[in-house]
Amino acid sequence: MDTKPHVLVVCGRNKRRSRTAEYIFKNDMRFIIRSVGLSPRSERQLREEDLSWADLVLVMEQKQRSRITEAYRQLELPSIEVLYIPDEYEYLDEELIELLTDKINACLQSAYGI
């Protein structure tokens, strides 16, 4: 692959899960990561431009995938994978870091062989 894939990580409010993912992978040389939230109260709320930028979207819950596909059905969406990580962790929680690391690495391996 000539260019690094762009990975967008999405959760509810971009406070804990997606922000933790962005933090732990921000210096990973295999890909470029960004995080956003779906809530209007998110510091960085999902926009059409984020979806156009992304090669792969990772959401924490199935309902988030559904919200994106419904709200942006007019777009040609990138692949959206569900990580199945519940909203029960704090930002940078050790267990959350372990879950995100394992699941995101598995998605990257599956999608890009990296």
UniProtKB/TrEMBL annotation:
SUPFAM superfamilies: Phosphotyrosine protein phosphatases I. It comes from the Bacteria. This is Protein-tyrosine-phosphatase. It comes from Rhodocytophaga rosea.
